[in-house]
Structures are given as structure tokens and as C-alpha cells.
Amino acid sequence: MVIEQYTIAATPKYNFPQPNIDTALPQRFIEQSINSLKYVQNQPFQLNQQPFQQATNMELNPQTFQLRMQPIILKPNHEETQIAACDTSTLKIGETSTGMLIAVRGANVWKQNKSYKYTRLGPFIFHITEENKSEVYNMLERAYFTSTHKQSHLYFVNLLQSPTRIASLLERWLQATLAKTMNDGVVLFDGSLTAGIPDTPIERLKEILMNARKCGNVVMAFSKITSLRINGYLITDMPLQQRNPHLLETIGLRPKPPIVLLGDVYVARLSHGSYAFRLDIDKENSNDQRIEAVGRLLGNDILTQGYPETLRLAHILCTFTANEVIAMQHFIARKCGLKIINRPDMHRLLFGPFGRGESYS
Amino acid sequence: MKLYKKEGNILQILSFPNETVEKGDYLLVEDAEAGKALIAQVIDVQFASIPGVLEELLRSLPDGGELVHGEDFDPLEIAPHITFIQDASLLVCKIRATLENENLSPSSSWLPSRSQSTIKKLAIPTLLKLAKVEGKLPIVLGGTKDSSFLTIDASCLDGRLNIITGKKETGKSHLSKLLMVNLVGYKATVAVFDLNGEYVSLGMTSDGKRNAYYDKIHVLAPGQNFKVALKQVNLHVLLGILIHALHLPGTSAREFRRIWQSLKERDMLTLHELGEAIRNWNCNQHVRDALSSRYHALVNSGFFTDIVAEATLLEDCLFKAQEHGGAVIVNLRNTSTIDRQIVVEYVLGKLVEQLTSWKLKATFLFAEEAHLYLRETYWDDIVTRMRHFGIFTTFITNQPDTIKENIYRQADNIFLFNFTNEHDLDVVSRAARVDAETVRLIARDLPPHHCLTLGRVVKDFPIVVKVKALDVRTMGETRLFFKDTN
Q1: Mean pLDDT score across all residues of chain A
Q2: Do B63 and A302 touch (CB under 8 A)?
Q3: Of B55, B75, B85, the CB nearest to A326
Q4: Closest CA relative to residue B363, chosen from B330, B409, B336
Q5: Is residue A256 part of a domain?
Q6: Which residues from B are below 8 Å from A309, CB to CB?
Q7: DSSP assignment of A298-318
Q8: Domain containing residue A285
Q9: CATH no. for B149-226+312-467
């Protein structure tokens, strides 16, 4: 059977605005995406969309720590400062007889001259199978390491983990881009500054933070969900009679090796009556620099519900809508000639209305 | 296009941006396995309900309505697929017929295969051929959307009740003139109640020259070249005028009958003698007053004369029209309400008289804004009784609620121009030969000079047509104050 030949080269559209940024990784993304799709021609395809939650906030066994109950009161600093953020998202589009089809997309957002701008990469669609999962991941990994640490490192990845691992690679690349291209700004990450986990090797995150500091940027990471507790209470639920924006500092937070925290952890309530978030700020910055950076964030970004708009936009822009999922399924069906099938749902088949009862509601 | 849903005789079809389908278009939903096809007409085009579209729109407007600008690097070029899905439309279609072995049946009781059916646009000429909308007496109404002509058969207007309606300045009179001259061309006898003097120049081209119809158009202006002598009028025609147009009570009508017979016996049927007779007649004073006031109304109308040479014989005009085909245009432009009713009663009375005695074969009657001169009881007469005599009426109006519901129910053909008012559309949608959704959804979006043709002339396949231009001098233009200034 003759299959359509894909040109394995960057399309003319793929033209990065920053010439000083190494584009090896996104180019490998395209190559690997196209390569993986070559071998998926004319297979049956079961639609099954499911977003993957990235494990960006690993808080494995933190030892006893305290929360300094004396709040650090924050004052908005309106001195013009560029605020930037990045996020990625990944989604399983469906299953084939040999593996699964996933989509990855990332976005960088920054606020410039009082308006928001963005650069969005993707979606990249991969066909991940037991056979090619390591190849795809390691090719991408090597693209990153070639340009940064000049070392080769092969990982064995679980099929189910590979979507989040691939998305993490793209996210680190986007973070590195922001860290290198911005000056004297505030860079916001989604999640935490925890390193030493498979998705985030220590050296990689260290390098990003170092590059950011070289350019005068302060990196901070917002976690929407935390599992850190003091006396059984989540740190973000601690009651405090303080109306002004403030931070609560944690003391003595030491995760078990090999996990390391490259940031100091705070509880941030950045607007009155809003939610509190775990906030990690690069610990290599002085205390004053950190407080000043949060002040500049307050003075330069919109903080609806205590969450920075720039980061919210980054999340929104890379999230896949149902419409996009249908479009990607349409793309795959057209380009790869996949036949969409409906496998019977075993739970429903065997247990009738008692199988996956909640889905019936 | 993909078949999505069927509910009753409504089909919902998913259409993609590369398929251009508009309201009014016909689709053929073909199920090869079943050997049948549904013919459906698009009555509405909606956005398909695509999940996630709201999110898609919302995320581009996060900052108080200001657009977020940015660059997208989309190496696999998924974006066109997103817009392709986003711009998908849902075609709401009404099933008009089932096509099986080249034969059409109005059934919609079977269900075509959702997965295997093929859907394609059905060209109007093909539809017309399938529906056998053709005949020996073609009238080209105008062009359809796919650049073909819509040709109807004049015999589909024969013996039928037609309604031309639409809001002001959409082209109703133009269409009625088109139908009229074509009927005249086929040697039909046509009578027109011309309220605004629009039809008087049908015999002239737009540049003022005589056209082929010049000798076939007979314009009668009441009080000017259209007068009648009492001797030429039958008693029942005059009684009709007195009772229906001038509201003469029954007792007085009885006295009038006696006076008339007395004068007739003495061969003294003149206006002068009638006036004298009423003055001297031995009867109740109230009756005399009633008769006297009606007499003066007749005299003042200027429609009646004692000079026989001045009188025009309507019959002659009608016979002339019957011989070679022609139209008798009764110009009601400069007549008062009462006079208009007198003239209309006379003309209708005469027509019935000629038709009942088989002196006339049949007449096509065009009545513009008939509510302004037609008495209440005539409406039912025209659509039921007079049809049997051979008066086939076409009502033309921009106020559809002035025509009674039972007339819509019996209308055989409706030529519907644009209406925006829901109430107007509701009234028209009561017609028996059309469904309410088609009227409401298609007529609302019709551009000027476009007409939705419904009924027998199109074999119940509603078709939108742009009415063709007519090279006749138009007289229905609105007089404008600022015309010269502009």
C-alpha cells in the first residue's frame, strides 16, 4: 500500500522569533511527530480522549516543616516589568491497535505594553507504541541535551507516562526560552521548582534558573494544588486575618533525596478574599529580591482570584478544547487513513447499568 | 455533507465549509442500497453545535474584550482542521418527496442510511424535470440561484386561486404584470382592478414605444372612458350596487325594484327619469329619503350616463379580449371609496352575468389590495362560487392579514416576497399548500425581487426565483418629494 510521504523538515511557518534560541528540540518534535505518524496508517482507531495531568508538583515525603505565621505584607510595585509565563498540556486523542495517539502543545505568554502576547507551539501529535516509546522520547531528550549538557542519556519510559514526559520536555524548553530571552522580568512557571524527578532532572532546572538569574529575571512557580500539610491542614487553607496581599514563609521543608527544592516555598494570597497558592521562588535570589519580584508581579499583572493572568492565559492557550480534539481526530483520519472504531465498553457490557455508574448520570 | 438527524419530515444535515449550501437549495439524499432518495429543501442554515466552540471563542478574549495577539507555530497544520470543524453548519431541511425509479412520491416515511447515504445538491432544472414542472404554455418567471430559469405552466393558473404577497417595494406588482401579460399572450381574458393606475401602460415599452400587447390592453377609467347607461344595466347588478356598495336596506330595495320595473315597462330607464320617479313615488318618506340619497350617490359617481353614445359596453371589451386575448384594466386610481365599490360591483356583476350565460369562457381576475374595494361577502364568493363561473382570481397585497384565513387555505399558488414581520409570516403560513417553517424561515431572508413560489405551479416544491425584468413602462413608482433634489 502506498502511503503519503511526509517531508521531514521544518515547515516555512516554523520560524522562531528569537534567533539566539536553539530550536533543535521543537524541530525534533516535528520530526518525531511525523515519523511516529508514518507507521499508523490504516489502523483501526478508537476515539478516547483523556487529558494527562502533568506531575509537576511532586511532593514526595516532605519532612516536618513549619509555617512562619508572621505574614510578609506585599506592596504592588508598578515599575514597568515584563511578566512571562509558560505552560504545556497533553492529551490522549485515541488508541490504535498498537498504541496510542497523543497531542502535546505549549504556550509562552508575556505582558508587554499593557497587552498580552503569546507564542504557541503545537499541537504535535505522536503515535506512541511499546516499540517506539523509548525511541521517540530519547530522540527528543537527546535534542535537548545536545544543546545544553552535551551528554547522552537514555531513558526507559512507561507507555502511560510517555505523554507527560514528552510534554515536560517541551515545557522545559519553553521555560529555558523565557529564562534566556527576557531581561529583568518575572518568569512564572506552572507547578513547583521541585527537581530530581524523572520529568525534571536537577541539572536541567538548575540551568534554567541560572540563565534566568543571569538575565536579571526572577523565576517563581505557582501550584494550583498542594499536598503540603501542617497539623493536618493544607498550607493553603491556613486561616489568617490579613486583608492585604501577603506571603507566608515555610521553614525547614526538606524533601527526601533525590528530590530537591530549588525554590523556597511560600503560601501566597495575592488579593483580598481570593485563594491561596503554593508559591516557589528561586532560592538563589535574595529574600529582598523575591519580595520585590512578587511586588512587581502585583503591580504589573492582573491577579483575578489571586492567580496571575499571564499564567492563566498560558494554561488556557495550550489547553485542548473539544473542538480541537475533533479537529485532530479529523486530521489523523484524513492524513493517516485511520478507521475510527468503537470498541465495546467492557464495564457496560458486563455490568450493564452498574458498570461505571457515574457515567450514566 | 452527512446525514445527522431525521425528525418527522425534518432532516438535519451536517455540512462543511467547502460545501456551499444556502436556504432554498434542494438536496438529494440518496441511499443506493435502498434504491431510493429523499428530496429535501434547506429551510435554515445554522452553526453546527460543535463541543468546545465557546471555550475557543472565550479564550481569545480574556482581557476585557481585548484580543490576545500572538504567533502560532502549527507544524502539522491542524489549524485549518479546527476552522473546518468550527465552521461546520447544520442544514435544517424539509423533506419534499421520495424519489424511486424516477418517480416522485410525497412520502417521507422511510429512513435513509446515516452512514451510507450520499448527499448532493439537486439542481433546480433536474428537480423541475423530475417534478414535471413543464407544460405547453410556459411562463418564464425568472432565474433561480443556479442560473437556470424557472418556467411554470400557464395552465397551472387556470381555474386556480393565486396570492401574490410581500412587503412594500419587493416586486409584487411586477410579478402580477408578468403573469398577466403572459396570460394575455396565450389569448386569455384578463380583468384587472388597478388601484394605483400601475397597469395602464402595459402596452408600452419602458422607452415609450408600443409593444406587442398594445392592442390587447383596454384601459377603462370610470367616469371618463368608462360610463354605463342605466338601460345597459341589469336590475340585479344595480341592486347589488345599491345593497352592497351603498348599503340600501331591504325595504327600500323592494321599492326600488318596483320603480325600476315601472320605468322599464315604459322604456324610460334614464337617470333623470329615475330621479323623478323616486321623488314622486308613493311610499314611506324614510324609504324615499333612502332611495334619494343612493340615487344622488349614483349620479355623483359620474359612472352612469343617460347618453348612450357616451357609454362603454364592458361586454364589448371583454369579447374583444376573449377573441385575441387581452386585458381589461379598470383604473381605480382617481375614484373615491364609494365610487370604487360601485364600479367593482358593476364589473363583477357583469362578469358573472357574461360567464353564467357562457358568453365568456373564463376570466383571470387580478385584484390589487382587494380589501379596499371588495365587500366582505365577495371574498367567499370569489374563491368558491365565482370559481365555478370561471373567475380565477389573483390577489395582490402587502397586508396579508386583510385576506381571510379561509382564502389562504384554498389558495392554489402563493408567490411570496420578503416579509420581516412575524405576524405577516404567520398569516401567510396558514396556507394549506405550504408548511409554516418554510414560509417563516425562507421568506424572511428573501432579497427584493426574489419570490418564494409555492403551490401547484411548482408541483409543491417551493422554489426561490428572481423575478425577471419586464420591458414595460412602470407606473407604480412612489411619487417622491425629494426626487429632483437627489
Answers
A1: 78
A2: yes
A3: B85
A4: B330
A5: yes
A6: 62-63
A7: HHHS-EETTEEHHHHHHHHHH
A8: 24-342
A9: 3.40.50.300
DSSP classification of residue A113:
T
What is the pLDDT confidence band of residue A109, given thresholds at 50, 70 and 90?
A: very high
Burial per residue of B75-93, b for 16 or more beta-carbon CB atoms within 10 angstroms, e otherwise: bbebeebbebbbebbbbbb
**Option in B71, B76, B85 nearest A323 (CB):** B85
User: Does this complex have an ipTM over 0.85?
Assistant: no
What is d(CA A360, CA B6) in angstroms, rounded to the nearest whole number?
Answer: 25
| Residue A361 maps to a domain | no
CA atoms within 13 A on the CB side of B484: 1
pLDDT for residue B376:
66
User: Which of A322, A230, A235 lies closest to A277, judged by CA?
Assistant: A235
The predicted structure's pLDDT at residue B435 = 82
Domain membership flag for residue A351: no
Place of cell 540563565: A211
Grid-cell match 552535551, residue found:
A150
pLDDT band with cut points at 50, 70 and 90 for residue A7: very low
The domain ranges of chain B are 2-122, 149-226+312-467, 229-305
Residue B380 cell numbers, joined: 367567499
Higher-confidence position of A5 and A305? A305
Helix (H, G, I), strand (E, B) or coil at B92: strand
Region A115-141: what's the mean pLDDT?
82
pLDDT attached to residue B317: 82
Segments of chain B with pLDDT less than 50: none
Burial of B377 (0-12, 13-18, 19+ CB in 10 A): exposed
CA–CA separation, B318 and B311 (whole Å): 15
Report chain A residues whose CB lies below 8 A from the CB of B50.
Answer: 322-323, 326
Contact B62 A316 (CB under 8 A): yes
Distance from C-alpha of B222 to C-alpha of B174, rounded to nearest angstrom: 24
Could B85 and A26 be called an inter-chain contact, meaning their C-beta atoms sit closer than 8 Å?
no
pLDDT score at A58: 47
